[in-house]
């Protein structure tokens, strides 16, 4: 691969556009089960760059080919429904103003059917439970306007049980704290209008300690920095109103050091192969912290959608639609 950019280089938007377009022809077997998610990451990256140029009908028709009779979405055509893929599909349908193309009631009730008696959510019919799925269910149902389908208080109680003594959250009660799970749990609580039930400073302190001398962020202690945590950590700090607790300029330098200035895209670490996942989340981190080297679209740290989409959906501000736009950073 080409050398990554220096920390002072600007965003190479044209190359990122080309990089995303080249993914259309990706037929690697190990990526096919995540195609819906990949489309969301790629097109959302272009939205951030203000360079979205895909035809809505092409995207929506692909999504509908992944829509199953139970109301959920698979990761690709003819694949079983899973909450992970359903969220990306719902986000894309909102992005392209095409939610009416699906049976909202059927989808909402399928999502609700994933809730277990203890308030947790399983990802699919096979029963894996994870706090990711609590966030996903609440995110999807807020976007669809159908949170009445689930027991919100039970969902909140389960998430609170997953908080640890160090302030972080794990995948399940008693599991190790992890930045990705903190994003999911903080996001779920925000969507449930229950952020006041945690100590924000304690959570933010754990997140702030994820910044390393390189400027990058890791997901848990003793791990290396990874560009994707520019989203998981910064979005959580944004929801908590504590983004000033990390060194913004140092993180900018780290993210940009992972940018491929010859072929486009961002990688997890400087010098590694770029991919669409880290491209999207690297741009998210730059957007959330107000990078001024390129006019990036603003992304909401709760829904992972641009504010114009949320404005169009008229989502109530108490459920996080204004978070990150005007929230104070202490």
TrEMBL record:
Residues 16-304 form the Prenyltransferase alpha-alpha toroid domain. Its cofactor is Zn(2+). One of its GO terms (molecular function) is metal ion binding. Pfam families: Prenyltrans. Belongs to the protein prenyltransferase subunit beta family. Its EC number is 2.5.1.60. Binds 1 zinc ion per subunit. This is Geranylgeranyl transferase type-2 subunit beta. GO terms for cellular component: Rab-protein geranylgeranyltransferase complex. It comes from the Eukaryota. The lineage of its organism: Eukaryota, Discoba, Euglenozoa, Kinetoplastea, Metakinetoplastina. Catalyzes the transfer of a geranylgeranyl moiety from geranylgeranyl diphosphate to both cysteines of proteins with the C-terminal sequence -XXCC, -XCXC and -CCXX. The keyword Protein biosynthesis does not apply. PANTHER family: GERANYLGERANYL TRANSFERASE TYPE BETA SUBUNIT, GERANYLGERANYL TRANSFERASE TYPE-2 SUBUNIT BETA. Keywords: Metal-binding, Prenyltransferase, Repeat, Transferase, Zinc. InterPro entries: PGGT1B-like, Prenyltrans, Ptb1, Terpenoid_cyclase/PrenylTrfase. It catalyses: geranylgeranyl diphosphate + L-cysteinyl-[protein] = S-geranylgeranyl-L-cysteinyl-[protein] + diphosphate.
